[in-house]
Design goal:
four-stranded parallel β-sheet, alpha/beta, globular
């Protein structure tokens, strides 16, 4: 796809990107993924750049995925955790990132428990800011890798019924998925107990999102099911009688999966609570693409870093030649 719009300095959320910008990132991730099959899995696209991973919440997949993505583009990386940072001594978030920028950091990958944290620092620094999850607001690269995985398996978005099943109210993944998938043409159904669905979703997404509290009805004829975990750490009050009751009423098992289309795929952003929101039989089934999501996350995050740097787009038709030039440093 040709570049038709100016690129933002930062990736703060998929709400702020156009359909064309989302498609550009996804298309560019295809040649990035092909790099995985090469004997040398690195290109010098970001040689000399420094990527700072600033994580104020625990993370395994996202942090390691960003680190691998940066290293495969030949960037240097530094990793900062809240427990070992000067925040423990009372330093503000803005002062922390300004100090990092004073060390000539080019990218700030931020995960924070407060919604809007990435937006807050984006106006304070010249470095590219990438939101790696902020409170219950957004997780844009997860939304992008989920969309990339869906397209990789389905080859389209138009006409797909995508069910997001689980704790919608506290999920930044759900929000990013809804923004991406509705812009790309899919119809999204969110399903959860009434206490775990925020109000006004159909209006926010202009009728492209349907709300359901009936799991069997929601899963009927689904092309994609994206299962979310219960985020008990974010819930400020008891929003359900018990975890066992939630599992009985909303957990994805083989009998419920059978209500979807025969070629339905199952996603989960992780970490999984097996036996709560999803059974092992489903998570390990041939319809599960959960590990594909992990692999695709590296390619998508490579694409995001490359895209924000303003580098020329890698078209699908010329990506082999372009990657070869980057690999040799030409």
């Amino acid at each position: 796809m040709k570049k038709t719009e100016s690129r933002p300095k930062d990736l703060l959320g998929l709400e702020y990107l156009t359909k064309a910008q989302i498609e550009e990132i996804l298309n560019q991730a295809k040649p990035m993924k092909q790099l995985f099959t090469r004997s040398v899995k690195k290109v010098p696209a970001l040689r000399g750049k420094t990527v700072a991973l600033v994580f104020f919440e625990p993370s395994t997949r996202t942090r390691i995925s960003f680190e691998l993505a940066a290293k495969r583009l030949s960037a240097d990386t530094i990793s900062i955790a809240a427990s070992t940072s000067s925040v423990q001594k009372g330093e503000s978030l803005i002062d922390t990132v300004k100090n990092l920028e004073a060390m000539n950091v080019d990218y700030l990958i931020l995960r924070h428990s407060s919604s809007g944290a990435a937006n807050l620092i984006s106006g304070e620094v010249k470095a590219h800011v990438v939101n790696a999850g902020d409170g219950a607001h957004e997780h844009p690269t997860q939304g992008l890798l989920d969309a990339f995985t869906i397209f990789d398996k389905k080859g389209r978005f138009d006409g797909l019924k995508v069910v997001i099943l689980g704790d919608i109210a506290h999920s930044r993944v759900a929000r990013s998925n809804m923004w991406a998938l509705t812009k790309l043409g899919a119809h999204v159904v969110v399903c959860a107990p009434p206490t775990l669905i925020p109000p006004g979703l159909p209006d926010i997404f202009e009728g492209k999102v349907t709300v359901s509290n009936k799991v069997d009805e929601a899963l009927e004829g689904a092309d994609v099911i994206n299962v979310l975990r219960l985020q008990l750490e974010r819930q400020k009050e008891n929003l359900m009688p018990s975890i066992r009751e939630y599992t009985e009423l909303y957990g994805l098992n083989l009998s419920r999966l059978a209500l979807a289309k025969r070629d339905c795929i199952v996603l989960h952003p992780g970490p999984m609570n097996r036996g709560v929101e999803i059974t092992s039989e489903v998570a390990d089934s041939h319809q599960s693409v959960i590990l594909n999501q992990v692999t695709n996350g590296i390619a998508v995050r490579m694409s995001v870093l490359y895209w924000l740097a303003g580098n020329p787009s890698l078209s699908h038709s010329s990506h082999v030649e372009e990657l070869s030039r980057m690999e040799t440093g030409q």
